[in-house]
Structures are given as C-alpha cells and as structure tokens.
Amino acid sequence: MPNAQCPIPKISVHLWEEKIVDKLNRDDRSKQRKQKNVKAIAELLRTVLQTQDIAVKVGSKDSAIYVVLESASIPPRKKWVSYLKYTLPRLRLESSLQTVKVYGRQLGRKRAAWVEAFELARPKASDIQRSKVKQTVNFLFCLVGCSSFLIGASWNWIGDREWHSNAAIFSSNPETMSLEPETTKTKANNETPSASETNEAKNQSNNQAKGRFNLLFESLSPDSKIEPILLQPFPSANLVAIFENISDTIEASLPPASIAIKAVGDIVPGTNFPSNKLPAKPDLLFESVEPYLQGADLLFGNLECPLTLHPYSAKDISRPLVFAFRAPPSYAQVFKKIGFDVMNIANNHSSDFGSVGLKDTIAHLEKAGLKTIGQKNEIIYLTVKNVPVAWIGFSTYHYHNSVHDLENAQRLIAEAKQKAEIVVVSMQAGAEGVAAKHVRNRTEMFYGENRGNVVRFARFAIDAGADLILGHGPHITRALELYKGKLIAYSLGNFIGYRSLSTAGQLSYSLILEVELDLEGNFVSGQIIPVRLDRKGIPRIDTQYGSVDFIGNLTKSDFPQTPLIIDSQGEIAIKPQG
Fold first, then answer.
1. Which domains does the chain have, with CATH numbers?
2. What predicted TM-score, i.e. pTM, was given to this entire model?
3. For the chain, which ranges sit under pLDDT 50?
4. 298 and 382 in contact (C-beta within 8 Å)?
C-alpha cells in the first residue's frame, strides 16, 4: 500500500541528446522495444481517458498495433482516430510496427461498432519544420507525455500500484494482449542494497526515462536547446483540457484522409394500407442495430415506402403480386433520430400513392433534415469534413434517372464530378428473390420487366466518374466487386420489412455496409456488419455472421478475379499485390 506520509517528490527532468537515446534503443531487443511501445501508447491513452469513462486496451501482433476503446456509449470515431493518426507516427515506435487498427465499441457488446485501420507512416525530416499551429500541437503533446510519465513515476515513489488490463479485444479471440507494466523487484527481509546495486538501479532508471522521453519528444528538433526543467504531475482535469485543446487543434489544421459511409438496403417500416401493419413503437425497429448505424460521416438507406396521408393508391393491389405500402409522415423523424442523412426514393414503391404521395414523402424527409435522391436529373450535394460529396439515384424507370439511359447517366455523373470530390451512385436494379442472388453481366428480367444489366451500368458509371455504387432492389444481398479501385455493392438486400417483406431462408440475410474512401474516391477499407431479419422483418445483429459468409461466397463465385478479401469477421480489404 502507498505510504500516506511520503510526499510526492519533485522530479528534475533532463531531455537527452538524440544520439544517446538512439544508442540506448539500439541496445534493446526488438521484442522489448515493441513491449515498451505498447506500454507507452497505453499509458498515454489511459492518462488522457481516465476521467472520460472510456476504457482502453492496447496490444501488438506481428506488424500491427491494436487499440480498443470501450465506453457506455460508442466512442466518437472521428475524434479518436484523428488523435491517433496524428500522435502515433510521431512516437519513435519500433520500425516493424506498420499498421494501426482502432476498434470502438459499446461496453457489454462483443462486436465493434466501428473499425478503422491506417498505415503508421513516419514523419519525414522535412516535416520537422512545422507551422506555428503544429508547433503548438507538439508542445501540447509534450505536456501530455510529461504528465503521463511523471504521474507514473510519482506513483512508483509512493508505492506499488496494481494495474488491471481490460478484457480481450473480443471475447471470441483466444489471444489476449497484456498491458501489465513490469513490477519492480525488491530486496527480501528489508535487506539494504549495496552502493554498486544502488548505482546500477539509478542507471537503469535513467535509461528507462531516456527511452520514455525518446518516444514522447521525438518530434522536437534535434537542434533545439532545452534546459532541465522542474515539473509536478498535472491534475487529471488539466490533462483532459489539454487533450481537448489538442483534438480541436488537430481537426482544424489537418486535412481529412478519408470519409466513411454506412449504407443499408430496402426499408419498409410497416404499412397502414390496405390494413394496419405498423409497429406499436417504430423506434423498436432499430433497437438492435442502432448503435451500429452510428460512427460514419454519412448514413444511407433505400426507402421503399411513401410517407403520406394521401388515401388513394396508384396501384391495383387486387392483382396478384402487386403491393402498395404507406407509412405515417412522422416516420421521417424516426429516420432522422436514428442518424440517416440520405434516403433514396428512386424505386418501384416510392410512387405507390402517385405523385402526391411522392411529393409528400420528399417534403417530410427534407423537413426532418434528410436529403432525398432519385428525382429525374437531380444531383444532391453534401459536405463532410469539408469534402463535397455528390449523390445520384437511378432506377429502371423512365420517370427517374434510368439505368437504361447511359448517355444521361454519363452527363449527370460528369456534372457531379465537376462540383464534388466524391460521387456516390444509388442503383435500384436487378431481378428479385433467391433465384436472383447471383450477378451476371447480362440483362435481368423480372415478370417480363427489364430490370437492367447491373454489371454494365455499375462499371459504366465508374468509367464516367462515379466512386461508389450502392445497389438495392433485388430483396437479397449480392456480391461485392472492386472495379478500377472503386467498390460496387450489387445489392444491400432488405434492411427492414416489418410484416411486409419475406424473410424466409436467405432472404433474411442483411447487413450494414461500412466503406472508407480516400479523397480520390478509391476504396480503402470496409466492413460487413452482419444483420439478420427476424420473422417480423425486424433487423437484429447476427452473431453467427450469416450474411458475411453469404456475401463472401457470392463474391468469390460471381467475381473470382476481384481483388477483395472478406474475412470471417466481415472486414473487407484489398488483396496485397504480388
């Protein structure tokens, strides 16, 4: 137990010359350096996070660093990834560590709500000459580093402090990542150490301090003249304030490296026509999946149900296999509350209640703060992270932007590309049902209706300048393809079909697709968050990963040459070349 009578000592800190620290580092073994790297990162994050109710786990395996953030609510992705992207490359980490993978999840859940990976690019020598803003950032990081080290050092002087590592990254993963610091060995029976032992201990302590400060202060210029300083540990409240200042400064001074988009398929939240099949509480439709819809820059869905009070359907539902859906206008607020940004209305149900119902739907969604896409010759623009993103909705019908009219599609995409960095195309096309799960480069027919050649259109759109293709309409999930560096999702399947859409067998497979794009619109990474619809058509997170296997197998079968890898956890990556 700590000695309550022992005051916290003041510590004189010397920042050693770069060449001395380099020699010390070269004397360490690679494995020991990796362990020090992991502990330094863990200590820095824990110090910053200790009053923010976020638990952190840090570990390494092969050439990767793994960071897991857990809290009662999902940790904000943008804030923490920006912090890590700026901080970690500036620490003098073991050169064999090349990649960082960050997981954010809610406490008590096995799956991560978001995952982001990035390469651990070291700063160039020329980067040392920074602007005043970045010099301020470096100084703030130094303060955090000093505080982290000094608090730990002070605790060691007071007495041994027991650390507890968090749970493994995922409970299903048998490998755990130890973050336990090495304990200090003491003499038994209060034996007094000899003078040589005392000097050896002091030298070891100095070497450890040098190594620690080498990690935290590497970004300072080697030519800087730094005098010894006398510091006291910062209170935790000050550390949090420093971090907030760092985070704000980083976001203001650094351009974004990528944007993240989440997308889901067909949404029919119930209907009150011709009879009432609405849920008692519409919020419950999203109860299982809501946390997993958060964390992206943009969230997209395909709404296959008019939001209107108009009483007259434009369809003759007395005919076989003819369906008309209608939901209350108040559902627009439900979608907004969940976090949707863009809703596609270029589909075969948006006009179930004629032009009146369609206009009502658009008006209610836009009043709630959502953008709608799919009206003929219309392009929607949104700006995220100061990056303009264009959205265009296509279907197989002439009163929408049609997949059959390639000339008009090329014109619209070219126009969008002139005004936006990234162009996203929504595509309602393809035959329906289990028999239509495979994608072929040919025209698809459904009950005599030409549902387009989805492969031809998707690739044509990319050739014209589109960066991401989000397909829907077949009511079943389909394969993914990477074409010229751009991702094509041929069908996102059903996402909600409350008492309306079939969920038998493979029709129950669904997903939340997360895609990371760079500023050129190229695919960087992705995630299939597996979802399965219950018998009422309500989406539930699928712990069996059924849709991951289903989509993975379809991708291998339908596009064997595509350079995509989908692992058992749903992570989508590009195969290494060579």
1. 11-167+196-253 (no CATH), 258-574 (3.60.21.10)
2. 0.63
3. 1-29, 125-134, 136-137, 140, 149-190, 202, 205-234, 236, 250-251, 253-254
4. yes
